[in-house]
Amino acid sequence: MGERPTLVVVGAGIAGLTTALAASRGAFDVVICERTAELSEIGAGIQLSPNAGRVLADLGLEPAIAAVAIEPRAIEVMSGESGASLLAIPTARFRERYGFPYRVIHRADLQRVLAAAAAKATGVRLLLGTTIDDVLPRGGDLFVKLKGQRAEVVHAAAIVGADGVWSETRTRIPGAAEPRPSGRTAWRTVVPVDNV
Questions:
Q1: pLDDT on residue 196
Q2: pLDDT for 36-90, tens place per residue?
């Protein structure tokens, strides 16, 4: 890529793509390794707090996010048994108070916006169907051997693991804690408002 040091980001989800965009605007060229051969529409709704909106706007994504996100009138907590409203927090003042609105967005839409921005960003390469085969420290330098659709060796300044709760990147860190299931499950769904 260029003269800047290279950051290897493992995972092209929300965290990985956002990290890549932020790093590319700073001091790094970025190689994103994503194990899947294509980015798929998996996920559910995501809440974008005003703080998240500010980060996305700083990355130049405000118009794209505004086009696919929704600003609800209120955050409502309802009883699952009766359907009665337990609590309603109006969101109209969020923009005034924090400078950005409270929004909701589908994960796939957010990932699509981030991936499109990464595809246009200078110094960012998204390698689908690619994982890390080995990490080779040599004389103070770090070389990352990639495998999959792209088999190459990248001279890296650092590696960022953004490959989820069952991260393979984490397993490469001596003494890293293993994730432990809590035993709880949360089910989310999107229902047309006319069916509520």
A1: 67
A2: 998 887 777 899 999 999 999 999 999 999 999 999 999 888 888 888 999 999 9
For the segment 153-159, the average pLDDT, to the nearest whole number, is: 95
Structural contact between residues 142 and 156, judged by C-beta atoms closer than 8 angstroms:
yes
Split at pLDDT 50, 70, 90, the class of 2 is: low
- Planar angle of CA 178, 129, 27, nearest 5 degrees: 75
Closest CA to 20 of 135, 156, 115: 115
Residue 14: alpha-carbon gap to chain centroid: 1
Q: How many residues does the chain have?
A: 196
Number of DSSP helices (H) and strands (E) in the chain, helices first? 5, 11
CB 102 within 8 A of CB 72: yes
The pTM (predicted TM-score) of the whole model is 0.87
- Measure the CA–CA gap between 74 and 184, rounded to whole angstroms: 27
**Cα 155 to Cα 137: distance, rounded to the nearest angstrom:** 10
Q: What's the token pair of residue 132? A: 């890390």
Name the DSSP letter for residue 171.
Answer: G
- Tell me how far apart the alpha carbons of residues 101 and 51 are, in angstroms, rounded to a whole number: 9
Let me know the angle formed at the C-alpha of 20 by 15 and 22, rounded to the nearest 5 degrees: 95
